[in-house]
Amino acid sequence: MPTDPHVLFAASGPLAMLGWLALALSPLAPRAAQIVAGLAIPAILSVAYAALILVHWADAPGGFGSLADVMALFTDPPVALAGWLHYLAFDLLIGAWIARTAQATGIPHLLILPCLALTFLFGPAGFLAFLILRAAFTARARMIGTPQ
User: How far apart are the C-alpha atoms of 148 and 141, rounded to whole Å?
Assistant: First the structure.
């Protein structure tokens, strides 16, 4: 595994994008998309995250005690990269959950694509958009008597 944070950063983006592409195309192969985006890629990102934290955490400035401490913590390139990998892994896991939940509840895949894009770019905003979409579908199903 390369130890240069810039090399790891450059490799992490395309890897995460592969997972998001799998989710976007998940109606074609839902099980494969869940394995790739909901398990394999987040696991790889998590291994890199854990390695970075184990090696660099003790020497990093700052901490979690205040906003100033958090800002100082992310001035350390390996720790900032670990934070980035954390975002990539967890956002992808949420994206996989969105795709899986939408499929299980009958929400058309085309409607979740904006939620997936939002989750990729802005994490919680995409999650919130999906919760609203799912609530709307659940309410609609109750109104017309369709089981959800």
Answer: 7
Q: If you search the block for the tokens 């909901």, which residue do you land on?
A: 38
Using alpha carbons, select from 46, 38, 43 the residue that is nearest to residue 19: 38
Q: Record the tokens describing residue 24, joined without a space.
A: 């976007």
Q: From CA 66, how far away is CA 36, in angstroms rounded?
A: 36
Cβ–Cβ under 8 Å, residues 36 and 18: yes
Say if CB 133 and CB 139 are below 8 A apart.
no
* Residue type, position 84, single letter: W
Terminal CA-CA length for the chain: 45
Task: State the amino acid at position 10 in one-letter form.
Answer: A
Are 35 and 49 in contact by the 8 Å Cβ rule? The answer is no
**pLDDT tens-place string over residues 29-58:** 999 999 999 999 999 999 999 999 999 999
| pLDDT tens-digit readout, 91-126 | 999 999 999 999 999 999 999 999 999 999 999 999
Helix (H) or strand (E) holding 48: helix 41-56
Residue of 93, 135, 128, 97 whose CA lies nearest to 114: 128
